[in-house]
Amino acid sequence: MNEFKLTAWPDLPAAFRQIGYRRMLSDLSQRHITEAELVRGSGLSRHEVRALLSFLKDKHLLDARPCHRTETRWPRPTLARLRQWWRVVRA
């Protein structure tokens, strides 16, 4: 999985002049971000996100690097944590 960051603000064609694309560009201009985070944050489909990333790569406006962080939305509870929680609920 890669993370992407915008190196310069592009001149967008008409197909990419919607709010979702501008939101994506704003996120890309501030920090390195993964494709999955762009899909969640922009409200666009994965296909639309990939289309913009491809456009930016072709124009050499995108910095890509391997992602070294794990992407979990919720930490997985261990059995010990569940038992601890259950003691609190039963008391």
Write the layout of secondary structure elements.
Blueprint: E1 2-6, H1 19-30, E2 33-34, H2 35-42, H3 46-58, E3 62-66, H4 79-90
The span between the termini is 45 Å
The geometry reads as: elongated
Treating each run of at least 4 consecutive H or I residues as one helix, how many helices?
Answer: 4
Q: Specify the biggest β-sheet.
A: 3 strands, antiparallel
Counting DSSP E segments of at least 2 residues, the number of strands comes to: 3
| Rg | 19 Å
* Unreliable stretches covering 5 or more consecutive residues: none
Strand proportion: 5-15%
Order of helices and strands: EHEHHEH
Q: Which structural category fits the helices and strands?
A: alpha+beta
* Largest sheet, spatial ordering of strands: 2-1-3
Helix content: 40-55%
Query: Roughly what is the average pLDDT, rounded to an integer?
Result: 84
Please characterize this protein's 3D structure.
This protein is of the alpha+beta class and 91 residues long. It is 49% helix and 13% strand. The protein has helices at residues 19-30, 35-42, 46-58, 79-90; strands at 2-6, 33-34, 62-66. Strands 2-1-3 form a three-stranded antiparallel β-sheet. The chain starts with a strand and ends with a helix. The mean pLDDT is 84.
Give structural attributes:
13% strand, 4 helices, 91 residues, 3-stranded antiparallel β-sheet, alpha+beta
Question: Concise description?
Answer:
The chain is of the alpha+beta class and 91 residues long. The chain contains 4 helices and 3 strands; from the N terminus they run E-H-E-H-H-E-H.
